[in-house]
Amino acid sequence: MVETIFDRIDMMEKYATKQEKVIIEYIRSNPIRDMILQSITEFSEKVGVGDATMLRFCRKLRLKGYSEFRFLLSQSVDREENPEDNEAEIVLSNMITALQSTCNLLDREQITRAAGIILNARHLYTMGSGNSGVAAQEFRNKILRYGINSNYFADNHFQMIAASLLDERDAMVLFSVSGGTKDMLEIARHASQQGVKLVIFTNYLKSPLAKYATALLYVVAKSAPLNSGSLVSKVSQLYVIDVLSREIFRQMNGVAEENLHKTAIAVMDKEI
Q1: Which domains does the chain show, CATH number per domain?
Q2: H/E segment holding residue 187
Q3: pLDDT tens figures, 14-45
């Protein structure tokens, strides 16, 4: 029989501290489908304990950390499928919900600030880890047509090398849905110490990454660990990228439009 997260909890419960028993009670009395969508900060706030307490609880369960805790929780979700479910409609509904929620939570002040940071940067880098790297690359490609030269590296070693050479005159746009990716946190920490301005796209406004933001852009794109490759998160990121790009276009006062014409002519011969 495969060991579940609840098996582990049962084995350690009699040794649990008072706060750990509060965590156990919360886990047993709340829907798993809701818990697996929460960041460690969101989960800890719901329970009423600190992040450090939650991490100690995970290690007491012989887990590497909160990510593995969410992973095991997601495996406990009942996977029975309704044969009448229309998968295409479910995917569409999830995307529409994510886009509408992201739109409702857009902060115009943060969008305006982010555009100004990008336009005034001496050097600009766009970076993301894993699935968020696709969004970082797409943003680089989009603003290139406006005449804004941005650098993009997929490899974390080159990301760190690039970050080490920046200062307060420069800016970085970082993408991380979870806001807890170690690579992005390391880059943000290093860059902020050098005064680099950081525009951050994340799903969790209270994530470890968010605290380094000069401008913080919220993306509603929650997914379970076993569904982390879902396009819903990418669609939400691309939507905010489009909104930010329009604000950059507006602030460029006609220069972006002129450059768009130039780039369109430059690739015209590539089409039949």
Answers
A1: 5-75 (1.10.10.10), 88-270 (3.40.50.10490)
A2: helix 182-193
A3: 888 999 999 999 999 988 878 887 878 888 88
